[in-house]
Amino acid sequence: MTEIIPGLEEIAARYHTLEERVREAEVKAGRESESVSIELAVKYQSLARVRAALDAGAQLLGHNLIHQLEEGESGLHTLTSTPPCTHRTHVIGHVQSNKAGKALAWAQCIETVDTLKLAERLNRLQGERIARGEATDPFDIMVQVNSSGAPSQYGVDPALAEELVGAIAALPHLRPIGLMTIGAHTENVGTIAHSFSVVRELRESLRRAGYDSLVELSMGMTHDLDIAIAEGSTIIRVGTAVFGPRLLV
Ligand SMILES: *Cc1c(COP(=O)(O)O)cnc(C)c1O
Fold it and tell me: What is the pLDDT of residues 133-176, one digit of tens each?
């Protein structure tokens, strides 16, 4: 199946169509309007295409690759012909330990923390950034949960999530703000919905256990965002619906 990559001039309209789809899904799920944020997954997109989406109203970007995060953020901030950037940027891909410092420098949240080792490294580096005057606050992170059990997926096993969240909550320079997951990789709507409800219930039980900074649920992509919104997602991560089919990854 080949689908044509939409041109630069189509990106704004596609972003607005996505916004409508999200608002409709909120209504259908009986949720408040604008309770779901759109995070644009921008892997392998040119700066011009990302800029077109920002001009159309996008406020949150998600980067998978740390070198693209650095190039994208520094590039967008130095584009002189355009208004200043006010968007926020999250990391949504696996963070290798040697890239942790760059992730902290260029993003405002890392959604893919799934081991205590990575969390401890981020905590130490953020402490050093604060000591150098490069940052003032704890860094926002989310814990990635492997909700489908697929061995190919990153993320902590739901049964081990409370232990990990508890250990992260004790780190002074990180602030866990929610849970992130990639839905089950299947066409079966019930199975996908289950993978999202597992994470919602996990957040609810963690909040009952006292981790009440866990407000966000980052779940849902182009093909399953309606299911994710019905299951309580607060952030959907969307690439294809706006930028067209992925060429890589
Ligand atoms: C690419 C990507 C998305 C967006 O997926 P689409 O199907 O293109 O909407 C969401 N989350 C992660 C982690 C991704 O890598």
Answer: 999 999 999 999 999 988 888 999 999 999 999 999 999 999 99
Measured CA to CA in angstroms, residue 238 lies from 41, 218, 230 at distances of 5, 11, 16
For residue 214, which amino acid is it?
L
Nearest CA to ligand 1 atom 14: 41
Q: What tens digit of pLDDT does each residue of 210-228 get?
A: 999 999 999 999 999 999 9
Query: Ligand 1 pocket, 43 CB below 6 A?
Result: yes
Output the CA–CA distances (angstroms, integers) from residue 55 to 11, 89, 229, 244, in the order listed: 10, 15, 25, 18
Summarize the confidence of residues 115-131 as an average pLDDT: 98
Find the DSSP H helices in 84-232: 100-106, 116-131, 161-169, 189-208, 225-230
Residue whose CB lies within 8 A of the most ligand 1 atoms, among 5, 221, 229, 243, for a mutation test: 221
CA of residue 134 to ligand 1 center, whole Å? 30
